[in-house]
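User: Structure please.
Assistant: Input sequence and predicted structure:
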Amino acid sequence: MGGLRERRLLSDPARPTHLSMAALAGIAVLAVLFGSPAAVVESATDPSDVQALGVLYSALNSPPHLFGWTSSGGDPCRDSWKGITCSGSAVTAIQVSGLGLNGTLGYLLSYLLSLKTLDMSNNNIHEGIPYQLPPNLTYLNLANNNLSGNLPYSIYTMVSLNYLNLSHNSLSQQIGDIFENLQDLSELDLSFNNLTGDLPNSLSSLSNLSSLYLQENQLTGPLNLLANLDLTTLNIADNNFSGWIPQEFSSIPNLIAGGNSFANGPAPPPPPYVPPPSRPHNRNHTEAPTDTPQGPESKPFHPDNKNNKKSLTAGSVTGIVIGSTLGALCIVLAVIFCIWNLPKKKDDTRKNASPSLASATIGADRATDKEMQEQRLKTASVTSLKPLPPEKMMVEKVYGKNGSGKRPKVPITASSHTVASLQLATNSFSQDSLVGEGSLGRVYRAEFSNGKVFAIKKIDSAALSLQEEDNFLEAVSNMSRLRHPNIVSLVGYCVEHGQRLLVYEYIGNGTLHDMLHYADDSGNKLTWNARMRVALGTARALEYLHEVCLPSLVHRNFKSANILLDEELNPHLSDCGLAALTPNTERQVSTEVVGSFGYSAPEFAMSGVYTVKSDVYSFGIVMLELLTGRKPLDSSRERSEQSLVRWATPQLHDIDALAKMVDPALNGMYPAKSLSRFADIIALCVQPEPEFRPPISEVVQQLVRLMQRASMVRRSSGDELGYSYRVPEHEVSMTDLSF
C-alpha cells in the first residue's frame, strides 16, 4: 500500500515541494516499519517445521543447552537454532549428537518433509522410535541411545535413505520386511540390540548395500538371502545364526562371523526333487523349498569357539569345502537309508493328519507341529511382495466349549482381567459409563483404582455362535499383537463365567462421525489440514492391516464411527481384528448391514463377499465425509442427495461442482489446488468394480504426496497462513485473492 501511494505522490508535479518532502518522510517511516524484512512478524521457517521442532523440544524435556530452541513458535532458520540447518525456509538437517539429550522423539517428526539428515546419536533418548519418521531422509543416525521397541514400518517408505544406524540401543522383536524400497541404502547398522528371529527377505533386495552390521543380537536362521549382496563389510558375530555359511561370503573383504551356531563343512547337495502338494492360492506369499537345508546345532564354523571375532579368509572356506565333500556325501546316503526304512505306520499317520501335516514333505514327518510351522515360515519366497509383520501372528485353534478350552500356543500379550475387576471399574456396567454401542456389544468407560482409564467392549454372548466363542481367544491373541499408532490397542480381556470382554486403550475425544455430524461447532476444529491427517492416519492403519499382517486382516466395518480422535485430533482405528468374531446369524448380519450400509461396497451388498478392496471402498466413503461434512446416508435430504456416494461421485471431476460440495464448516479455508487431487483419490477408492480400486498402500502414497505439495504451497505462498484459500462467494467482493 505504501509503495502504491509513493508512486502517486511522485508522479504529481502540481503538489507543493514541502508536501512532497513530508510525504517522502512518511513513506520512509512506513518502509522501515513494514517493508524491511527484519521487521516482518511472519516466520521465515515453514510453520510445519516450526511445529515439529517445538514438539521435539518438549519431548526432550526442553534442554537449555539447545540454544535458540523453544517449544512454541520461534524461527529456527532465521535465528540459527543449535544443530539446525536450513535451505531457504525449510529445515534440512538436525545434528545434535552427543549433547546429553534426555527424553523421547515426540510424534511430529513426519512433518519435516524437507529434512535430509537426522543425527541424534550418543544421547539418552528412550522409549520407541516414532512410527512416522521424516519421509525424505537420506541419513538417519540414532545410535547409542536407549531406544526400545521394534523398527518402525515407516522405514519402508523412506526410499531416499542412504545411511541407517540404530546400533547400541535396546531394540527388540523381529526385524520387519521393511527394506524392499530402500535401493539407495549403502550402510545399515543394527548391531548391539536385542533383535530376534530370522532375517527379513527384503534384505536381499538391497542392491547397493556395502556395509552390514548385525553383531550382538539374538538373530536366528540361515544367511542364504545375504549371499548375492555385493558387500565389503559384514559383521554377524555373536548371534544365533545356524545352517551353513554361504560360499559367496569368502569374497567379502571384511567378514566377522564368530559366536554363532553354524554347521561344519559345506552345505550338502539339495535332496531329490519332490513335487509340491497342491495348495490353495495365497496372494500374500508363495512357498518354495528352502535354498539350503538346516543342519543341527554344532560348534561354530570358525575355530574360535570361544566367541571371539575372527575374519573368514578365502583359503579357510575353500579348504573346508574340499575336505568335507566325502563327509557330506555320507550324510546324504545315511538320510536316504533312514527314509527308506521308515515304518509304514507313518503312512497311516499321514492319512489321518490335518491338511497342513498331509501337505508336508517326507523329510518333515518327524517334525512336531511347531517345527513344521517354522519350516513353512522359513520357506516363504524371497520374491514375495508383501512385507512381513513385525511379529508373526500365527495362532493355534482354541478348543472347548464356551471358549474355556486350552489357550493358543502363541501367547496372548494382553493381560487377563476378572469380571469383578471390570465391574468395579465400570460401576457394574452402569448406564453412566456407557460410551458407545456396536453390532457386537456395548462399550463402557472404565476407571481403575490406579487412576488409569480404559474402554471395555462387552461382547453380546447372544451374538456369538459356539464356534465363534471357541475362536474368541484366537482372535484376542491376534488383536493383542497389533501395534500401530493409528490403531486402538487391545490391552486386556476377560473370559470368566461365560463373559467375553475386551479392554482397549481409551481415546477420549469422541469419534470422527460425531465430530463431523453432531457436536456443536466441532466441525470448525477439523480444519482442512486436520482432515488430511485423519485421512492419512487411517489409510496407514489399513495399510498395516492389509499389507503388513500375514495373512491380511480385513477390517470389514470401516466407518467414521470407528475412527476415534485424541486431543490432538490424531485418528485411531477401532475394532481391528474383530472380523474374526463377526456373527454369521441372519439377525446379526442384517443389523450390521443396516448400521454400515452407507459404507458397504457393492460386491458385499450383492454377494456378501468382503475383501481388502471392500475396505478401500469404505475408506473412500469416509474421505467423502471429510470432504463434504455429510453422512453416508441422510434421509432428511432430498431423495437425489440421500446417498452420499451416488450424489457426490458424478461431481468429483467437475471443478465448479466440487467447490460447492465442500463442507460449509470449513468456511472456505482450504487449499484449492489440493481439492481436485483429494477428489481424484476418492474417485479411485469408490470405483464400483473392486479390481479398479487401488491397494491401500497406493492411497497412502498419494496422500503423502498431496501433503508434500500442500507444504510446498505454504512455503511459497504470501498469504498470512500460507494457504491459497478458496473464498466464499459472499466475500468475493471484499477481496481479489485468486486460487
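The first strand starts at residue 84 and ends at 87.
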